[in-house]
Batch of 3 targets.
Target 1
Amino acid sequence: MDDVAAVTRAVLTASRLLVAVSARSLAEVEDRVTLPQFRMLVVLSTRGATKLVTLAELLHVAPSTAMRMVDRLIAAGLADRQINPDNRRETLLQLTGEGRLIVENVTVRRRQEIAGIVERLTPEHRASLVDALTAFNEAGGEPPVPEAAGTDLHPLGWADLPSGRGA
């Protein structure tokens, strides 16, 4: 059997599981935000105040699409606009406290569910999985998630990634 095909099949199966975990972690907020809107919240969470054009580039969407998403997040009380103090002609977008809380809560739920799955593995399988996934992530250019919850670096894998990897 071709080992590339076997690994690809195993990774695709694992990605299905991770998408399901992601969907469940968003379930409590799905009445407030869509997945694309949540991606925007994550980027704003990791980058802080950001120009609309930059946000659109990072999410790989048209600026008009990003503007509609921002308008909905502002209407929901999850983001707001502010004048750029360095250039008063620019507007910066940022999370509100409520928007930051949504990102934190979803991140905690996702981390807990993944930890529950990992706890069911034997210690040997855990060690092998760490080695395999570390190599996989490095090959794909994905930065590691921080060890402790609550840090601002790449909480869900979408920050600073123009391709929008990480679901």
Target 2
Amino acid sequence: MDAFWRRKTLSEMTREEWESLCDGCGRCCLHKLEDEDSGELYFTNLACRLLDRDTCRCSDYAQRFQRVPDCISLRAEDVRKFAWLPSTCAYRLLAEERELPEWHPLLTGDPNSVHRAGVSARGRCVSETDAADDIEEHIVDWPR
């Protein structure tokens, strides 16, 4: 039988299936900047204070919206609007009717495959609470 992500749309998935799509890269938890005039998006290496920079998972997932009021909830009907999602994000890929990358944990069975593939934020970000300089000083090009 085909894997659930091949036979179901994002909106048809159970909560457990939806959550399992997250590859654990942590890049969605990095701050982004948008140019007000051009609309261009800039990625930074500044991580949300709740991001565990080793596991690249939220350290308080259940309470994230209470602790970080501007944390964004990903919903199936909104995924296409989120241009800031990494190009390798399973939610974005499936919304665009593309396949999961070969290193995705659902394909490998290994949650660390995302880190070995070099697409996660592990070792490449700093916590927003540790950054003393302006956010513009943290713009990077690696999350694309």
Target 3
Amino acid sequence: MAMMTVYHGGYEPVEKPEIRKGRNTKDFGTGFYCTVIKEQAQRWARRYNTKVVSIYDVRLNTDLRIKEFREMTEEWLDFIVACRTGKEHSYDIVIGAMADDQIYNFVSDYMDGTITREQFWALAKFKYPTHQIVFCTKEALKCLQYRGCEEV
């Protein structure tokens, strides 16, 4: 598989990524979240006082269990709902669009029954493209090669 560059936005350089179980459930479950969109990683970093984007070279190991959502689909929505409600999955790496704050509000409304699935899709229009790649296992983390970091 071809080499790609991914970015992780945070408050410090992350030379050795780890999988940390957080208090909050996320789109694709527990893992180390990155993106191929540098500007998106910069937005993630801007949440902190110290704003750092770590940069990695990645070559995906095709022996790993990789789930890729090439677009927002019913399966993508169901997967996010399952992960956001704490259900675990068996993938090493998950790739796809991000349910940003606005989209996640619609996901929450759908989960609560406030809106229907059809209403969700009518509302779910991104203002800008999003992308996330989540490294969910220690084996998946081995695909990352730290290249350096930039302050935002």
